[in-house]
Design goal:
Chain lengths: 180, 171
């Protein structure tokens, strides 16, 4: 039996030390997902805690068919999407989907700050599924199959999201800054 | 012959060094004579570096402890009906005592509307009696009269407050 599955079984039996170990191992990534999608530290912390409670409840049904991390990040992503669908959360994002009518993007961006801050500003304008794909791509060793499993999408769709998101960011973050 | 936009969709995999060899060679041949794609690839490489440099966010130091606390709270056994009843008894007793004390104080102050209210209750009791429906709870006359009853009211009120505070902390 893998160490991962053994840890899951100890957690499912109610071993709190084992569950603390599980939380410690995945808290940074779960919090990063919540923080990058919700853009509010307090809300991200609260949601990340809720994710681990859902993980605990779901542990008896975890069969080890997917990696534990994939399963946990899937729960985190779903929880973020649920939160973002709440009425008070309605936010305007730039439209990158193929069939969407492209509207002129008039945001001038933050002036006089460094590139990473500019990047952060424009990342916040991307729709959540594009942000999630980018987050997982750079924090999960660029493995398309795992990103696709977490987001429950075909690999081709993930590649398309990444390509569109990067092209848009490249245009607004790198090329515009170089042109100034 | 591929178009530039087709080659540009390969950039991510090229930078991630996962582009199949034959495609990588084809792209490199194209870059050798296409300044537009070369420029775009340089910009994409810069963006790639920026995105890869973004660190993991760090939750608060007591994050794990908070998760475990929430978990314990969620799995704490729900209070039984018997426990709830037992917890409620002091509330009920103190509420009755407070009402009796209030009755005594307002009675001593000789407030006309209070006297009228008491007379109405007495009338209701008499009417029920006349119909042969004796109220099930008949307080003996003179109960909770005097300073002792007021002291009991005060003690019970304090007991209620202490119990409320301890329960509020627990739940």
């Amino acid at each position: 039996m893998s160490a991962e599955l053994e840890l899951v079984q100890r957690c499912a039996r109610g071993d709190q030390l084992a569950f603390a170990e599980l939380v410690e191992g995945h808290k940074a990534m779960v919090f990063t997902i919540a923080w990058r999608l919700l853009r509010d530290r307090g809300e991200a912390e609260d949601l990340a805690q809720e994710v681990f409670l859902r993980v605990f409840r779901g542990l008896p049904s975890f069969r080890g068919e997917a990696k534990l991390s994939t399963w946990i990040y899937q729960i985190a992503y779903r929880a973020c999407l649920e939160e973002l669908q709440k009425p008070h959360r309605r936010q305007q994002y730039v439209s990158l989907d193929e069939n969407a009518r492209e509207l002129p993007f008039a945001d001038p961006g933050p002036g006089g700050v460094d590139l990473s801050q500019t990047l952060d500003h424009y990342l916040s304008k991307l729709p959540p599924h594009y942000r999630m794909a980018l987050t997982l791509y750079y924090l999960q060793d660029r493995k398309y199959e795992e990103i696709a499993a977490v987001m429950e999408l075909p690999v081709g769709t993930v590649k398309t999201y990444l390509h569109r998101a990067k092209a848009w960011l490249r245009e607004h973050v790198v090329e515009e800054r170089c042109a100034r | 012959m591929r178009r530039c936009d087709e080659f540009q969709t390969w950039f991510a995999e090229y930078l991630g060094q996962v582009l199949p060899t034959h495609q990588r060679r084809e792209l490199e041949d194209h870059l050798a004579f296409c300044p537009t794609c070369s420029q775009l690839l340089a910009a994409e490489r810069r963006l790639d570096q920026l995105l890869a440099a973004q660190p993991l966010a760090t939750p608060s130091p007591d994050f794990t402890l908070q998760v475990l606390t929430r978990l314990q709270r969620e799995h704490a056994p729900a209070p039984s009906f018997g426990k709830w009843l037992l917890n409620s008894l002091p509330y009920a007793a103190s509420a009755a005592a407070l009402l009796a004390g209030l009755n005594r104080v307002l009675g001593a102050l000789d407030i006309p509307w209070w006297d009228k209210a008491r007379a109405a209750v007495a009338q209701a009791y008499t009417s029920l009696d006349a119909l042969g429906q004796q109220p099930s709870i008949a307080l003996p006359p003179g109960l909770l009269e005097g300073t002792t009853s007021l002291a009991i009211c005060g003690v019970l009120a304090l007991l209620t407050l202490a119990l409320y505070l301890s329960l509020a902390e627990e739940y």
